[in-house]
Write a structure and sequence with these properties.
- The complex is a heterotrimer of chains A (504), B (129) and C (424).
- Chain A has 15 helices and 12 strands.
- Chain A is of the alpha/beta class and 504 residues long.
- Chain A has 3 domains: 101 residues, no CATH class; 256 residues, 3-Layer(aba) Sandwich (Aspartate Aminotransferase, domain 2); 116 residues, Aspartate Aminotransferase, domain 1 (Alpha-Beta Complex), CATH 3.90.1150.10.
- In chain A, helix 6 packs parallel to helix 11, helix 7 packs across helix 8 and helix 11 crosses helix 14.
- With 129 residues, chain B is of the alpha+beta class.
- Chain B starts with 8 loop residues before the first strand and ends with a helix.
- Chain C has 13 helices and 14 strands.
- Classes of the chains: A alpha/beta (504), B alpha+beta (129), C alpha/beta (424).
- Chains in contact: A-B, A-C, B-C.
- The interface between A and C is large, with 193 and 191 residues.
Chain lengths: 504, 129, 424
């Protein structure tokens, strides 16, 4: 029985270009207080464009209706649980939105005089020090724009350090359970990738690793990139040992901080041997996903990597904050300016709101919620690894696929029950993975609705598997044909194509 | 159960070869397209490319996965099947016929001897599935 | 809950952590504070940062008025708190808006295809360069010295580990435009791409066609970069380019001390499968209704892993949405009028302060300060005006030159004050 949702009519809406009418507009510019300049004279006629063909022309009302209607077609955290593993879809506190918009912070130009930017620079400094305390690391850069960007920065730091030691080395080890950005990053940094298998506990195979580090070519290994807890939600119990094995051969341990929501306040990567790591502020630290970004991917490091940090580095000179560019060993810039400052403000607000004990409580609640789900769903879904789950749990679709229903289909049926799907088919080492991370945000009530939904779907699959195969049934659009989208890519609107099929 | 043309030869990586003189037409088998699911794109080498037996000559994509195609023979690519660019689904519909991938001018004709016969390939995929 | 989990205390949830890893103290962070105190905290930081100043800074970050509607829309929880639209059936709002965004970027830039945004303009440049390398099979890129200095720095960082040599070509001391002779001298069969910016960092408009012709003559691609998106309202779109990489901060995105912004990559149709980042495509659902979904995912990291076109995962969806609303509010006529106002404002200022270069410009130009730039800027600060950027930090050869930007928000009275300060 579906308890969380009920059908409701939702407005249709075409594309802006289809609703445009010549001459309509939603803007009003003030009258010029200076003489108007003829663009042809000022720029040269060859440099002046004709009209922007096809560009929208709608009134303000049409604009607000357009986007408001579109918004009603989306699911969101504000509407309910996202059980997405490793995404940490927690509540996005609204006060964070307010403080990010304060005039002095929102309108600060990165090139304005430092003497007029001390407040903004203090925000950066405050966040840096809070994150260092949380991670147990020695230094940090807030420059990277997202997790993957942070990974690249982190691996470039590894490379720079090894180069300074005489040999950048050739290979990076990546567990088979890793997120796709890890090997992609290693490649972008000029390294080849070697996979490490996971063992039956769902952790890295430390024997295999030790073996690799014993071979003659061990000095080719620059680093191991590990996610901890792993993408299975399982803490790598031998991580300190792994760090030791790597360090003995001059290699480094990189930690992908995507699962930091399991660790804050309980343990610190800097304390278990991590040399370099990135954080995802849009995961652990509550900054909004906004439909796919912006994020922020700070990189925290141990002291030996400090000289190589991207420029500039914030430091205090004669009692005032100053951006230091005199860093001869720096890897350079990884992006213009200083980082996604607006995101940094939100993350700092989150940390201040929780405080030390609050952050730890949030972590414990996250573990609790995940384990509650695990316990309740274990009788119905196959659990491939019995190791303790931290903030997320991974089931497999083995039982359900025996009836012909795979994790992807199950996920789509979950939509009919009023939820966003869990993470489907990842990590790939689990056949038909069902990866669930509730976060600390969720109340028991919401969790129970989710659990009931998953159990109900399991029953549906037992009794009438075909009924779920074409789910979702109650959404505005049914399953979208991704095959057609890939075979005949249409990635923009064109006027001749505008046979808007049926209702939009 | 699809039959594998008798006069073709096959590889364990699920390619087929139809040799005539020193030109070999190459494609992927029914088994391969079935495993891949709906094919959305085929990446083929340029004409004139030198390919080597066992090395990648291109790839086939479904919505969620990419699979490399390995060259069954060494030689030079003389022709590619242009129709697949606009109709990759042909590879699902007729992998042994209309949806051939490339033609190769073989430079080491006795490589052919190492390929599997239709019967052997049928056994192999029977065993695999 | 504890009972349901089969445990007696919450500690049991993390008891299994190795002893040597456990943190046996509280985090050394102050206890949590209330909403009111949080606002107070940040207000104090805001007060300690320039407020209520007029500004003539541009240099890659522009002060444009942000219509209220932009904030209204992006503040809606369905946009703000939604996830990446992997599950198309419950994300048609985001997907439709991105499809519209991709379309508008194509319309503005004259390209055929555009992605769903990059982190920012500075990182879009190396991604475009990597695209050109993949497409041409060549290794080297040539970049104009009047591309934004920080964009060039980022390109250098990325290029260093890709086996991608980067070489710069210069500009004309008189016009402020890129030096075509220098470019030609450096072009060869190894060049994958020529990267130019227009308006360039000095605000000057480049001869894009000439640069493109030279690049193409040598089999290289032309990558066109823009930092001031508002210029596209009036300037001829770079249809001679193969790839466009740019920054959309001008479209409703707060300067916000450097980020978050949104970059874009757009290109000719034939390069579609080489585009990095997310792409939204049009399709149908099982009832034949038009519907959108993420597409061509096989380019991306989650499938290709080490062979991906890029490691990029996120796009700047919310920021791109802000820009989309902005572009909608202004629309076809508005973007042009906005650009025309910018042009007029800057040319009013340049009628009072002589530009150093003779090339045509949009809303920024270079002018020599009467003495060290710090002096004139200090004087202006006293009048609550932030002056232009002193250029010697990036172009020491330019001495006391400053980069002045005037937008539709610049008031005549303030421009008169600046003009006065620039008089000897």
């Amino acid at each position: 029985m579906i308890r969380k949702v009920r059908p409701h009519i939702v407005q249709n809406e075409a594309l802006l270009f289809e609703e445009s009418s010549p001459g309509k507009s939603g803007y009003q510019l003030p009258t010029l207080d200076v003489p108007s300049v003829d663009p042809h004279l000022a720029l040269g006629s060859g440099n002046v464009r004709d009209e922007i063909e096809g560009f929208p022309e709608v009134s303000e009302v049409e604009a607000i209706r357009h986007f408001t209607r579109l918004s009603t077609w989306n699911y969101a955290i504000d509407l309910g649980l996202y059980p997405l593993g490793s995404c940490t879809m927690k509540y996005n506190p609204r006060v964070n939105e307010l403080v990010a918009r304060l005039e002095g912070l929102a309108w600060a130009h990165p090139y304005q005089p430092e003497s007029l930017s001390q407040g903004a620079m203090q925000v950066i400094a405050d966040l840096e020090s809070a994150l260092l305390e949380i991670t147990g690391m020695d230094a940090i850069t807030l420059q990277p724009a997202a997790g993957a960007h942070g990974e690249l920065t982190g691996i470039l730091l590894v490379r720079a350090y090894l180069e300074s030691q005489g040999n950048p080395r050739k290979r990076i080890l990546v567990p088979d359970s890793a997120h796709g950005t890890n090997p992609a990053t290693a490649s972008m940094a000029g390294y080849s990738v070697q996979n490490i298998k996971s063992n039956e506990k769902g952790m890295m195979d430390v024997e295999q690793l030790a073996g690799l580090l014993e071979r003659d070519d061990a000095h080719d290994i620059a680093a191991l990139m590990v996610t901890n807890p792993s993408t299975l939600g399982i803490f790598e119990e031998d991580i300190a040992k792994v760090a030791g094995i790597l360090h003995a051969k001059g290699a480094m341990l990189y930690m992908d901080g995507a699962n930091m929501n399991a660790l804050v306040g309980l343990t610190r990567p800097g304390d278990f041997g991590v040399d370099v790591m990135h954080l995802n502020l849009h995961k652990t630290f509550s900054t909004p996903h906004g439909g796919g970004g912006p994020g922020s991917g700070p990189v925290a490091i141990k002291k030996h990597l400090e000289p190589f940090l991207p420029v500039p580095v914030l430091k205090k000179v004669s009692g005032a904050w100053h951006f230091d560019y005199d860093r001869p060993q720096s890897i350079g810039r990884v992006r213009a300016f200083y980082g996604n400052f607006g995101v940094l403000v939100r993350a700092l607000a989150y940390i201040l709101a929780h405080g030390g004990p609050g952050l730890r409580n949030a972590t414990v609640d996250a573990l609790m919620n995940a384990n509650y789900i695990r316990r309740k769903l274990e009788p119905h879904y196959d659990l491939p690894y019995s190791s303790p789950s931290m903030h997320e749990v991974v089931f497999s679709d083995d039982r359900q696929s025996a009836h012909g229903v795979k994790t992807g289909d199950l996920a789509k049926r979950l939509i009919d029950y009023g939820f966003h799907p869990y993470t489907v088919s990842f990590p790939t080492i689990v056949h038909g993975a069902i990866m669930i991370e509730p976060t600390e945000t969720e109340s028991k009530r919401e969790l129970d609705l989710f659990i009931d939904a998953m159990i109900s779907i399991a029953k549906e699959i037992d009794t009438d598997p075909k009924s779920v195969l074409q789910a979702p049934y109650s959404t505005r659009t049914t399953r979208v044909d991704e095959v057609m989208a890939a075979r005949r890519p249409i990635v923009r609107w064109k006027p001749d194509r505008s046979s808007s099929q049926a209702a939009d | 159960m699809s039959t594998y043309p008798e006069h073709f030869l096959y590889t364990k990586e699920h390619e087929w070869v139809n040799a005539a003189g020193d030109i070999a037409t190459v494609g992927i088998t029914h088994h391969a397209q079935h495993e891949l699911g709906d094919i959305v794109y085929v990446d083929l080498p340029k004409i004139g490319t030198h390919v080597e037996q066992g090395k990648t000559l291109g790839s086939v994509e479904s919505v969620k996965a990419v699979s490399d195609i390995y060259s069954p023979l060494t030689g030079e690519v003389t022709e590619i099947n242009e129709t697949l660019a606009s109709a990759p689904e042909k590879l699902n519909e007729d992998p042994h016929g209309e949806a051939w991938l490339v033609k190769i001018r073989m430079s080491a004709a006795d490589e052919i001897k190492k390929l599997l016969s239709a019967a052997d390939y049928q056994t192999y995929v029977g065993a695999e599935s | 809950m504890l009972a349901a989990c089969g445990i007696a205390t919450a500690e049991e949830l993390y008891a299994h952590l190795p002893a040597e890893a456990k943190l046996n103290r509280e985090l050394n962070l102050a206890p949590g504070i209330s909403e009111y105190e949080i606002i107070d905290f940040f207000q104090a930081r805001a007060d300690d940062t320039a407020q209520g100043y007029a500004s003539f800074l541009g240099a890659g970050v522009y002060r444009h008025y942000r219509p209220v509607l932009c904030d209204t829309i992006v503040s809606r929880g369905e946009f703000l708190t939604s996830y990446t639209p992997y599950q198309a059936e419950i994300a048609q709002g985001t997907l439709t808006a991105i499809f519209e965004f991709q379309t508008m970027i194509c319309q503005l830039t004259g390209m055929d295809v555009a992605n769903a945004s990059m982190y920012d303009g500075s990182t879009a440049v190396p991604e475009a360069a990597m695209m050109a390398v993949r497409v041409t099979g060549r290794a080297k890129v040539l970049v104009s010295r009047v591309v934004h200095p920080e964009y060039r720095e980022v390109l250098t960082t990325y290029a260093r580990h890709q086996g991608m040599p980067v070489e710069e070509f210069g500009y004309h001391a008189e016009t402020g435009q890129l030096d075509l002779e220098d470019l030609e001298a450096k072009l060869d069969r190894e060049t994958a791409a020529v990267i130019i910016q227009s308006p360039n960092f000095f605000g000057i408009i480049e001869n894009v066609r000439a640069a493109a012709d030279l690049a193409h003559k040598h089999g290289a691609l032309l990558i066109f970069v823009f930092a001031e998106a508002a210029s596209l309202g009036i300037l001829a779109p770079p249809t001679d380019a193969d790839i466009v990489a740019g920054e959309l901060q001008s479209f409703a995105i707060s300067p916000s001390f450097g980020g978050p912004y949104a970059g874009i990559i757009a290109a000719k149709e034939k390069f579609l499968r080489q585009l990095p980042g997310r792409l939204v495509g049009q399709s149908v659902d099982t009832n034949g209704n038009r519907a959108f979904c993420l597409t061509l995912s096989t380019r991306e990291q989650h499938i290709r892993r080490e062979k991906a076109t890029s490691n990029i995962c996120t796009n700047q969806a919310l920021i791109a949405l802000m820009a989309t609303v902005y572009m909608t509010v202004y629309g076809k006529e508005g973007l042009r009028e906005l650009a025309a106002q910018n042009l007029s404002k800057a040319h009013y200022l340049s009628s009072k302060i002589k530009p150093r270069f003779t090339g045509p410009f949009f809303n920024e130009f270079v002018a020599d300060a009467p003495g060290p730039p710090e002096d004139v800027n200090q004087k202006l600060l006293g009048k609550k005006i932030i002056g232009g950027l002193a250029l010697n930090r990036f172009y020491p050869e330019l001495g006391n030159a400053t980069l002045l930007c005037a937008t539709e928000m610049s008031r005549r009275a303030n421009m008169d004050i600046v003009a006065e300060a620039y008089v000897q």
